[in-house]
């Protein structure tokens, strides 16, 4: 069984910063891509940023230049550094990872429970 647990959400003023963390645990053989998604009220879940096992990254246009995704492979953890936050960044942020569990041949996507980020104007 594999679990993803996010932390770091909360209330922040516009222009401020916040750092989210997501740690994967359990019977993990390997982790491929890790990413952050968000879902605002009344909107579909959208990809915010992704980091591949080799370190390449990709970002949604709306966060380019403000957010930075990184990972610590030794800790099976992915981070999202969010700077210059805007009210429109308010959402529940979810992490996701493509994990090959011990004893498994396939890679499955796992999700965290989500963490709320609220940016006040």
Describe the structure.
The structure is a single chain. By secondary structure, this protein is mostly beta strands. 0% of the residues lie in helices and 60% in strands. It has no helices and eleven strands. The chain has strands spanning 2-7, 10-13, 18-26, 28-39, 46-51, 57-59, 67-72, 77-82, 91-101, 108-111, 115-120. The strands form two sheets. Strands 2, 4, 5, 6, 9, 10 and 11 form a seven-stranded mixed beta sheet that branches. Strands 1-3-8-7 form a four-stranded antiparallel beta sheet, with no helix packed on it. Strand 9 (91-101) and strand 10 form a beta hairpin. It is elongated and about 50 Å long. It starts with a strand and ends with a strand.
As residue ranges, the low-confidence spans are none
Strand content: over 45%
Global mean pLDDT: 97
The helicity comes to under 10%
Rg from alpha-carbon coordinates: 14 Å
SSE series: EEEEEEEEEEE
- Distance N to C terminus: 41 Å
Describe the main β-sheet briefly. Answer: 7 strands, mixed
What's the oligomerization state?
single chain
Overall shape: elongated
Number of strands: 11
Broad structural category = mainly beta
Total helix count?
0
